[in-house]
Amino acid sequence: MKRSALYLAAALALSPVLVATPGLAEGPTTNLADVRSGAFALDPAHAKIIFSTSHFGFSTYYGLFKTFDAKLNFDAKAPAKSTLEVTVQMNSVDTTNPKLDEHLESPDFFDAAKFPTATFKSTKIVVTGAHTGKITGDLTLHGVTKPVTLDATFNGGGENMFKAYVLGFSATTVIKRTEFGIKTYAPAVGDDVKLIISAEFDAVK
């Protein structure tokens, strides 16, 4: 049997399973009228905080934080009334370069021994579209607290294939690290740090 015929046979065999599996065929909805409100906890296995900044203008550094937590109270009827709190462990930085990670955790940059966590607490949410918004909050980093606004997208809510009720979000922002007292090598090593965030939240039972 040719390979194309094998693929077709496999697809036909699996089609009843795919249709019968809740959440796998329909996917999440962005229609807030159909989304559940309440308390949600971060699913750390399906969440990322990625950062990037310029390296002397020649290339871009990329890294992420491996350990963080978040709590969300989501109001589907009035999203602007929702609240978000995030805590990041600063000694969990990962650039795939152990020496660079150690340097970032040192007093030259994060000073993770003195400032072990960074936190974000929302103070205002503005709805900008059917499933977009701006989340403003107080970011405390390196012992300094300043307002930061996330450009957020609601990816949808619904039951996944394991019957867990999930909300999904993406967000981006840019912060100036020198405003938080992290000044080493600036501006040669970029002052502007871009954050890319993706997260799933599970309903708290």
Description:
By secondary structure, the chain is mostly beta strands. It has a single domain, classed as Lipid/polyisoprenoid-binding, YceI-like (Lipocalin, Beta Barrel), CATH 2.40.128.110. Helices cover 13% and strands 50% of the residues. The protein has helices at 3-20, 98-105; strands at residues 38-55, 59-65, 68-74, 83-89, 93-94, 117-127, 132-141, 144-159, 165-176, 192-203. It has an eight-stranded antiparallel beta barrel. Residues 39-202 form the Lipid/polyisoprenoid-binding YceI-like domain. Pfam families: YceI.
Specify the biggest β-sheet. 8 strands, antiparallel, barrel
Q: What integer is the average pLDDT?
A: 90
Largest sheet, spatial ordering of strands: 1-3-4-6-7-8-9-10
> Multimeric state of these chains?
single chain
Order of helices and strands: HEEEEEHEEEEE
Give the number of domains.
1
Indicate the CATH topology.
Lipocalin
Task: Tell me the number of helical segments per DSSP (H or I, 4 or more residues long).
Answer: 2
In total, the number of strands is 10
Strand content: over 45%
Secondary-structure arrangement, i.e. CATH architecture:
Beta Barrel
The coarse silhouette is elongated
Helices and strands: which structural class?
mainly beta
End-to-end distance: 50 Å
Task: Provide the CATH superfamily.
Answer: Lipid/polyisoprenoid-binding, YceI-like
CATH class: Mainly Beta
> Uncertain regions: pLDDT < 50 for 5+ in a row?
1-25
Radius of gyration: 20 Å
Helix content: 10-25%
Organism: Segnochrobactrum spirostomi
Domain Lipid/polyisoprenoid-binding YceI-like: 39-202
Signal peptide: 1-20
Keywords: Signal
